[in-house]
Amino acid sequence: MTSKSLLGRSLAGLLTLLLVFFGTATAAFAHDSVTETSPSDGSTVATVPEKIQITMSNSPAVIGSQVLVLDAAGDNWGVGEVEVLDTIATQAVRPGAPAGKYTVKWRLVSSDSHPIEGTFGFTATSAGTASGQGAGAGPVASVQAEPETPGETVPDSPAVPWSIIGLAVVLVGVVVAMVVVARRRLSSED
Question: Which residues, 6 or more positions from 100, have their beta carbon under 8 angstroms from its beta carbon?
Fold first, then answer.
């Protein structure tokens, strides 16, 4: 086997490895997304629910999760910590929440450790259970200025992880080293 054919096979093998690596790595860069909310976005419910649920495409992390249940006045009716079971993040709602429009602002940490956030809204035609703190509140205005798309990534998260960039630099270095060694061998044989 000549040095030229060895060099050609080595480069072809390395190119194949790079294509396989970078071709399959793009799926890993996709963040999790919201598949369902309860109540659903834009829905009207009979009473303020006892809990808000956000279902994700993969299990979110508990650490760093936050769900705010805001009424038209901007008061947060969420109580306690966000609970995560499988792919569902649940936020309890304080009793006595008034009827009206609600905006749910959420921030969850996806399974790939990147924070994602979004908003959705719903309207309750009557107050929540054990009311008395806001019964008969009357119509309220919506506080949604500009809703975010569920599953939208936080702008400050990097698009490509540094470990991938480092690996690519190492692989390019290996290719350059192989070419230099192959050229030296070819020139020494001539």
Answer: 71, 72, 123, 124, 137, 139, 140
